[in-house]
Amino acid sequence: MSLHLSFSPHTLQFKFDARTSRGAIKTHQVYFLKVWKPSMPGVYGLGECAPLAGLSIDFRPDLEEKLQQVVDLVNKGKVALKAGGELPEELELQEWPALRFALETALLDLQHGGKRQIFDNAFSRGEVGIPVNGLIWMGDRSFMQEQIEKKLKEGYSCLKLKIGSLDFKTELEILQSIREVAGADQLTVRVDANGAFSPQDAYKKLERLAKYELHSIEQPIKQGQLQEMAQLCAYTPVPIALDEELIGVQDAQLQAALLETVKPQYIILKPTLVGGFTASAAWIRMAEERGIGWWMTSALESNIGLNAISQFAAAHNITKPQGLGTGQLYHNNIPSPLHIVNGELWYEDEKEWEISL
């Protein structure tokens, strides 16, 4: 019996203007994909397609058209989907990483009974939590200080600060104030520049940042400047994590060449941006073969996508905090069993999903 597919849009509303060095966002348009057997419509798998403006290669005006095309191909029996199976090449999803992630998630969910259990592991069974970093959004100094105090009270042992929109001196003062409260042995601090530094001044800024004993800096300069990034990674006093640099690099040879040219200390994997679980697993394998560290991060998805990424992360040997603390960003997120306790993300198995699609 062939599977059926549908999609529905959902506009997520931020609780505040979420600022990065690329600007502020108030809403995030996502699409939920639903897959089911026609004989059992009450049992369905769900996935989330949530490309990000300014980042995703599939944040395009024809996204809904592509979603409809995929739905039509499947529902008219021209392409067959299989629960938990590989995605058919006829769907032509190479340039649509967020859609690949959504379909992979929905099919795995259906394979496991349509209960939002994407992977069976200790996390998805509610037995262990995943350490996560507390995300500190850009804003004026008082807004950032307020967030930092709140996260420390909530028991986080790792904070991640977005930098690059305030003047650099103010950002250094904020880092100084954190270190006055908690040393590097008590609190891990990551920063994310979202490519805000120029190649000319990046090294000097990294030297000044090193004073605060940072775990890492994400994407200090804009992607696509491989020689400059390689030079920085070779001499940096602060370990560098590639993030945007991985977007759109889908050929295995190009991926290997990127890692071997730049030799980053870490890579950060966002399934929405790199193309789902299969693609993320390939990056992980290549990174580990080369002694490069990695962690998973959500890309502002609702709890549908966050749940899937968290369960995928938990299927691996997690040795450092993951970037999965984004479930509290929205007024109208999907109520779910996910919750954070003392800086760890937990799946509370007794709590129900509240979904109406």
The name CATH uses for the topology of the largest domain is TIM Barrel
Distance between the termini: 23 Å
The whole-angstrom Rg is: 20 Å
CATH architecture descriptor text of the largest domain: Alpha-Beta Barrel
Indicate the percent of residues in helices. Answer: 25-40%
Q: Give the H and E element order.
A: EEEHHEEHEHEHEHEHEHHEHEE
Which blocks of ≥5 consecutive residues have pLDDT under 50? none
Largest sheet: 7 strands, parallel
- Give the total of beta strands: 13
Mean pLDDT across every amino acid position: 94
Protein name: Chloromuconate cycloisomerase
Keywords: Isomerase, Metal-binding
Organism: Pontibacter korlensis
GO biological process, one term: amino acid catabolic process
What tags apply to this protein structure?
globular; Enolase-like_N; 10 helices; metal ion binding; 2 domains; isomerase; three-stranded antiparallel sheet; seven-stranded parallel sheet; alpha/beta; Enolase-like, domain 1; TIM Barrel; 357 residues
